[in-house]
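Field log, afternoon session.

UNIT: design team B
ACTIVITY: writing a sequence onto a fixed backbone
BACKBONE:
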């Protein structure tokens, strides 16, 4: 990211304009389109042959029974699918024959090695099979936004868009750059969804004043940014990514107006960034002044808010109740619920230097939440934070849908929330859909993807396979849940008449228990007046001991005590009989950043593998838990949780070539003397350690350094 100073000197970058042929590489666009087409050539519509059903006009008067169809499925063409299945069958037969042959020919002198290798071969075979079988019927589901719009925008509201609570989680203003978090928030505030129907919550696990004040400033900048996005329908709506684009096309008609608006907004964005950069110093300075005034009375070095009160969260100079992992719970409504009616802006006025005459200026409700942390209590990391958000949002907005983002991700396609809603409202399995997962895409990965961050086989292979079964697994971010599914309530197709809602299960907040009842009855929540008792209740549901002796973290909410809360939470929901949907959009719904150095990436992989194994050996083991799991879904969960074991056998085989170094037993013909080999191994070890160090530093092995990496480094303080 270049500094504002350089930006000024060079003149603000001009956006690329469709009309100006300003550097848009047509050949590149054509190439990309071609690649997309050839990828899609293998897919065909599933409902071809029954077009009537798809086109059937929905009978809205008869209610749910005749809700419209809001997505269409594509399946792999038979000409590709059948040979693929046949290949799997042939390979299974070959595998069985091979293992049989191995067992019959046990003429090895070293029986333990022979047994190990048989076990390894069987293991490889089974893990391959458990990976392939669920992929026998891949399905791509495409949301139908046109139909959704047609019905939800009908006058009289016969088809109302449901509410959505959108959560951003952050855990540190230093490790997770504030600018990224605020970009994520801005992309949410500017999303294309009915303004009064969604609320944005920032969950700050660090409890720091910087994040709170940054959020307040973000809300101010949003009054310009959001109408600008709406007026010119730009994408993406995270300013940092938008202003960095070099291929963005302006397709609107008012080119001149756009150019002048763009320049103005861009300047304001640079000012906003500068404000964020200076925030830390400003708060310190302010706190010093207040502390100097206060030292006569008390001897503390508090961190002060600009209204002259001490910040209840963490302080720059930590003390007993104001440090990381030990601070009060804070709920601050940064922006309250908008009016019901659209509020178009005035023509050029002082407050609005741009003409927002035909643009709705309202912004959604925005809330800052830092849950309480006490030294004696387990915080349960992200799962604990999300559960606290589930409760606080139940009191404030109680939307039937709940979507969470990691703070290093942002909304890249402003239609994404509408797309997820298509699956939730579809008349076929909509009501039984517990969550809609989107693929994860990353900005900062180098073109060679040297650490495999893009995970294409997983996101563009395995997940479509699961979509043809009971649905994709929950992947931690960019996933919209049905609130009831998170509460551990059965899907309608399995639901009994009586649903038990008590304080043993949900904790002892009466307003929260009432909100659960309201959610089941699908009642709209009205935010109560923020009187003292309500504020006390909000603080209570985010207190560190609220979960104690309840079902939170087990049968309710996100699951605790696992290194990876995501896969196991999705598993619990599938196990109750809900299905999930995988939604990939042509313009990617969300994008984010991934670890791009070897150490961080290895950490991540070890955490994921550990979490998977932990799940396999827990009460949530896919071997026996989840009584309503579809068989292939179970096979897949088994594969996802035991895959790390495969590495042991791979390691064993990798060591085979040097096994003859063992003094007594020589398995493989000796090519050189042992001394030669020891020297060679030592030399290679040095070489590889150098190579990995080089790669982890951004390396030269595959060409230059990614500009995104540079950006991340600068932001990383
Ligand atoms: O105590 C904590 C710890 C983490 N987080 C948030 O959790 C998110 C994910 O954490 P991160 O360290 O970025 O983990 P990643 O390895 O990038 O995350 C991947 O893996 C996790 C499972 O291990 C999933 O939860 C994530 O969604 C998925 O992107 C971030 O927004 C954090 O701010 C908290 O809110 N509180
Ligand atoms: Mn992350």
């Amino acid at each position: 990211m270049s500094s504002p100073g350089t930006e000024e000197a060079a003149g603000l970058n001009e956006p690329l304009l469709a009309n100006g042929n300003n550097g848009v590489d047509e050949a590149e666009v054509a190439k990309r389109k071609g690649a997309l087409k050839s990828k899609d050539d293998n897919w065909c519509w599933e409902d071809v042959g029954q077009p009537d059903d798809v086109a059937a006009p929905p009978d809205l008067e008869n209610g749910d029974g005749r809700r419209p169809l809001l997505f269409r499925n594509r399946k792999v063409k038979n000409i590709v699918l059948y040979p693929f299945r046949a290949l799997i069958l042939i390979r299974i037969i070959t595998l069985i024959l091979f293992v049989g042959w191995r067992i019959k020919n046990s003429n090895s002198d070293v029986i333990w090695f022979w047994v190990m290798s048989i076990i390894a071969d069987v293991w490889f075979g089974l893990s391959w099979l458990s990976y392939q079988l669920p992929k026998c019927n891949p399905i791509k589901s495409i949301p139908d936004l046109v139909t959704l719009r047609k019905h939800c925008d009908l006058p009289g509201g016969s088809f109302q868009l449901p509410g959505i609570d959108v959560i951003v989680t952050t855990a540190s203003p230093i490790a997770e750059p504030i600018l990224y978090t605020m970009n994520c928030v801005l992309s949410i505030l500017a999303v294309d969804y009915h303004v009064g129907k969604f609320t944005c919550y920032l969950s700050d696990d660090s409890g720091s004043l910087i994040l709170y004040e940054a959020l307040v400033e973000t809300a101010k900048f949003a009054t310009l940014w959001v109408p600008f996005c709406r007026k010119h329908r730009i994408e993406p709506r995270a300013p940092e990514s938008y202003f960095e684009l070099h291929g963005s096309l302006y397709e609107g008609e008012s080119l001149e107006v756009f150019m002048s608006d763009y320049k103005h907004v861009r300047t304001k964005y640079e000012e906003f960034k500068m404000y964020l950069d200076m925030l830390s110093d400003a708060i310190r300075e302010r706190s010093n002044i207040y502390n100097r005034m206060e030292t006569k009375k008390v001897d503390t070095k508090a961190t002060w808010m600009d209204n002259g009160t001490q910040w209840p969260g963490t302080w720059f100079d930590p003390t007993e109740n104001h440090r990381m992992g030990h601070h009060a719970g804070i709920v601050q409504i940064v922006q309250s619920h908008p009016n019901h009616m659209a509020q178009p802006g005035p023509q050029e006025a002082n407050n609005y230097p741009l003409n927002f005459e035909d643009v709705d200026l309202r912004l959604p409700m925005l809330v800052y939440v830092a849950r309480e942390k006490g030294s004696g209590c387990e915080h349960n990391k992200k799962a604990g934070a999300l559960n606290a958000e589930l409760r606080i949002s139940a009191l404030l907005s109680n939307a039937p849908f709940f979507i969470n983002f990691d703070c290093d991700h942002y909304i890249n396609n402003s239609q994404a929330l509408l797309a997820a809603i298509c699956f939730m409202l579809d008349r076929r399995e909509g009501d039984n859909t517990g969550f809609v997962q989107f693929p994860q895409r990353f900005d900062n990965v180098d073109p060679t993807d040297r650490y495999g961050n893009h995970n294409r086989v997983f996101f563009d292979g395995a997940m479509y396979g699961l979509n043809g079964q009971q649905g994709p697994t929950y992947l931690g971010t960019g996933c919209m849940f049905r609130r009831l599914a998170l509460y551990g309530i059965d899907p309608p197709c399995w639901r009994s008449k009586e649903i038990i809602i008590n304080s043993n299960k949900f904790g002892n907040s009466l307003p929260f228990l009432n909100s659960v009842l309201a959610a089941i009855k699908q009642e709209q929540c009205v935010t109560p007046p923020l009187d003292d008792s309500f504020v006390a209740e909000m603080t209570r549901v985010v207190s560190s001991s609220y979960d104690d002796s309840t079902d939170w973290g087990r049968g309710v909410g996100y699951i605790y005590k696992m290194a990876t809360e995501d896969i196991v939470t999705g598993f619990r929901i599938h196990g109750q009989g809900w299905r999930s949907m995988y939604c990939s959009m042509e313009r990617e719904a969300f994008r984010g950043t991934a670890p791009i150095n070897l150490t961080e990436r290895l950490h991540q992989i070890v955490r994921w593998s550990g979490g998977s194994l932990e799940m396999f050996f827990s009460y949530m083991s896919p071997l026996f838990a989840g009584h309503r799991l579809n068989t292939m879904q179970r096979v897949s969960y088994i594969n996802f949780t035991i895959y790390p074991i495969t590495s042991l056998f791979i390691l064993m085989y990798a060591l085979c070539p040097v096994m003859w170094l063992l003094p007594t037993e020589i398995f493989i013909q000796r090519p050189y003397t042992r001394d030669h080999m020891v020297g060679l191994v030592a030399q290679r070890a040095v070489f590889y350690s150098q190579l990995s160090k080089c790669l982890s530093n951004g390396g030269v092995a595959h060409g230059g350094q990614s500009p995104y990496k540079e950006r991340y480094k600068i932001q990383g303080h």
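LOG NOTE: Residues 160-274+308-343+356-441+470-596 form a domain with the Spore Coat Polysaccharide Biosynthesis Protein SpsA; Chain A fold (CATH 3.90.550.10).
NEXT ACTIVITY: expression trials, pending approval
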